[in-house]
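Chapter summary example: a protein plus shikimate-3-phosphate.
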Amino acid sequence: MTLNQSQVPLNQKNVILIGFMGAGKTTVGQLLAQKLGREFLDADLEIERLHGMPVTEIFKTMGEPAFRQMEKEYLVELCRTSREKIVSLGGGSFMQQEIREACLGSGIVYHLDLDWESWLERFESLIDTRPILQSKSLQEVQELFNSRKQVYADNHHTFAVDKLSPEEIAEEMVRRIRASWEQA
Ligand code: S3P
């Protein structure tokens, strides 16, 4: 069912998490969903389920453009038809204008913002499952990190996550989300 998203009350809008790979979108999203009693959707996992293949395999056998198309179809439709979800996006999703517009127009978009030094500490743990990182030098990854940060800046709320545990981030976000609902 298509919703008239402009008429969905603030406290029923989807909460959408964006940010670079490894920023903690999935972990924080799961915690937020538990704390707010909402359903959690991880866009990458949903795409894997719909297409019956891990994201790494989609990149390998069908290529990045095919994955981006799947991402766009899934997320634009989700934004058109759902409410009251907690959604974590893949780190590249927000680079597509249609996804950006759909998310900003229908949900409340939170950017989990990490600085480069903190991100570097997570790099080793990400490389095997993130095809985007595999063919790049560290300098190229840093350029990607910086250029994406500019696009992530188009959000409703930025949340610096460097010094906090996922539990602390989720707690503070819940506090802010509930406060914004009360003010609406
Ligand atoms: C990607 C990030 C990944 C996944 C895919 C591409 C990207 O998601 O969507 O590997 O382009 O940054 P996470 O941000 O959850 O790692």
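Key point: Residues 21, 25, 44, 55, 90-92, 130-132 surround shikimate-3-phosphate (CB under 6 Å).
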